Amino acid sequence: MAHARSHIGIDLGGTHVRCARVDAQGRILAAERRQTSQAGPEAVMRQMADLVGRLREPGTRGVGIGVPGAIDAATGTVLNIPALAGWGHVPLAEAVSRASGLPCLLENDAKAAALGEWRAGAGRGCDNLAYVTVGTGIGGGMIVDGRLIRGIGGLAGEVGHTHVTDSSEPCACGRYGCWQAVASGTALAGRARAAVAAEPSSRIAVLAGGEAVTAFHVAQAAREGDERALALLADFARLLGMGFANVQHCYSPSRIIMGGGMSALFDLLQADMASALRAGLLAGFPPAEILAAELGDDAGLVGAAMIAAEIE
Ligand SMILES: [Zn+2]
């Protein structure tokens, strides 16, 4: 009997290396994770080879790796990973391929997640979609005319650093006015902390209970009907919708899929994001449908495996 075909996806993160065996429909069959070794690329590559060895089966055909930084997909080289030291010009695909005997491909992690949602999540059957991950930062991956857009370094669709205002808190990139500086979970938490400082008896402050205020405290207060929290979220949704209009002007998707940690707040944001998108669009652009991602944290893992499936 022929062995069922499968592929291995690896999601390389600053804190964890996650690995899964995935079937042709994008279903995770088995998965494991390790804390990312901080001892440098050689140690992480050994972790990856070990995980692949544990999860592969006779029908496993290849490995795809989602990388949180810039890559050269053609040579399988990591060019730079901001969150991990020592990852300049590392021939990662070749190393994992040599250790496992399986073909291996790299993809930027946001692009891998876009591919995962396209093949197995909220983007199924849609050939023009924008995947936007909203968490501590904002990232993206675009499917245009049925093709994942990559660009040099695999960085096309890096929409979080598009400039949307002349004033903001500093962005993680060191500049001011980036979309992610005003519309990420980090930005929402910062605004909530300022609100709590001005009003220490507010419901948000009570829910935080002396801990650092996060976006999730705001969401919890909003679900209880707290007006301060609802106003913070309405403004946050407006800034997200404004950026979605920029995304639509650039790529003209029919669906915008919101992933990342802030997608847990999707039901609270949906209506205001949609109206800000409509308000920001040039006449003639039918507004994209804004949907929550379906695969959650697994989008990048599934998408990395799908990258491997596509080389066959
Ligand atoms: Zn920036």
TrEMBL record:
PROSITE patterns listed in its UniProt record: ROK
Annotated InterPro entries: ATPase_NBD (IPR043129), ROK (IPR000600), ROK_cs (IPR049874)
Keyword field: Transferase
Annotated GO MF terms: glucokinase activity
Pfam families per the UniProt record, alphabetical: ROK
SUPFAM superfamilies per the UniProt record, alphabetical: Actin-like ATPase domain
EC number, UniProt record: 2.7.1.2
Family recorded in the similarity comment: Belongs to the ROK (NagC/XylR) family.
Protein name: Glucokinase
Species, as recorded: Labrys wisconsinensis
